[in-house]
Amino acid sequence: MLHHKPMRFVPLLPSSIDPAPWIRHGSVALRWEGLHPDWPGALRQGLILAALLLPGKDLLAEALEGLQAGLDPDFLILPVDLPANREGGFRLLGVLENLLEATSGRGVKLALQLTPGSEPGVLALLRQARAEAVGFCWHPGILDPEPLADRLWFGLCEPHSDLAPLQRLGYRWDMALAAEAPERFRQEAAALAAAHPPVLFPEALPTTALGRPVVPDDSVVFGSAWDSREARS
């Protein structure tokens, strides 16, 4: 049986606030700005931390501070711009290598929140370094998510964001929405879900993967030919 998992909206909260009003939501994302002392206890009680978003001033120090505070998110979201030169590229790769080592065995994955326009350059850098263990975080500034589609692990949106480009790719993972109060979050998330109903299959398969062309497999059949006599033969 094929299970249909829709895009799920989770509240994006400052890590400094009291978690008590949000425990019933089951899953949240936190923007790191120091820690309210009740968050570790809330997470031990079953609240899931889908993602920890870092400010990006010192990625390594911020990530280690969050992890040492008892937070084990599913994803660390790292704001990343295109390095200005070769030295900056090596420095970024060094930070990613250190973070991959620090999160090894903890079930935490790294997702880059790319500055708009930096996608081609950062993809080329990761491809050269064979950094396939690093994924990406979509946000409204990324107009074309297709080059990132094969490693698009998390998303950020606003109440009126157009998520149609993600729907066309079949995106169905967590999408964080900045929240101030539970009831307002529920209303905004419901409106987004109604405007962007879940998809079962992408309209079109990605043509690139980490900047490399995807070679289609002629033995795999999609679309109108799915139930054709040729597809079943």
Account of the 3D structure:
- By secondary structure, the chain is of the alpha/beta class.
- It has a single domain (8-232), classed as Alpha-Beta Barrel (TIM Barrel).
- The protein is built from seven helices and ten strands.
- The protein has helices at residues 39-44, 59-68, 86-103, 119-129, 164-168, 182-195, 229-232, and strands at 8-14, 27-31, 48-53, 75-80, 109-114, 134-138, 152-157, 174-178, 208-209, 212-213.
- An eight-stranded parallel β-barrel has the order 1-2-3-4-5-6-7-8, surrounded by four helices.
- A hairpin with a 2-residue loop joins strand 9 (208-209) and strand 10 (212-213).
- Helix 2 (59-68) runs parallel beside helix 3 (86-103).
- The longest helix is centred in the middle third of the chain and has 18 residues, at 86-103.
- The radius of gyration is 19 Å and the shape is globular.
- The two termini are 22 Å apart.
- Residues 222-233 have low confidence and may be disordered.
What is the CATH top level name? Alpha Beta
Which fold name fills CATH's third level, the topology?
TIM Barrel
Instruction: Show unreliable segments.
Output: 222-233
Q: Which structural category do the helix and sheet elements fall into?
A: alpha/beta
Gyration radius from CA atoms, angstroms: 19 Å
Coarse morphology: globular
Average pLDDT, rounded to a whole number, is 86
Residue share in β-strands: 15-25%
- Largest beta-sheet details: 8 strands, parallel, barrel
The level of helicity is 25-40%
Strand line-up of the largest beta sheet: 1-2-3-4-5-6-7-8
By CATH, the superfamily comes out as: Divalent-metal-dependent TIM barrel enzymes
Query: How are helices and strands ordered from N to C?
Result: EEHEHEHEHEEHEHEEH
The strand count comes to 10
Distance between the termini: 22 Å
Counting structural domains, the number is 1
Supply the number of helical segments.
7
The CATH architecture assignment turns out to be Alpha-Beta Barrel
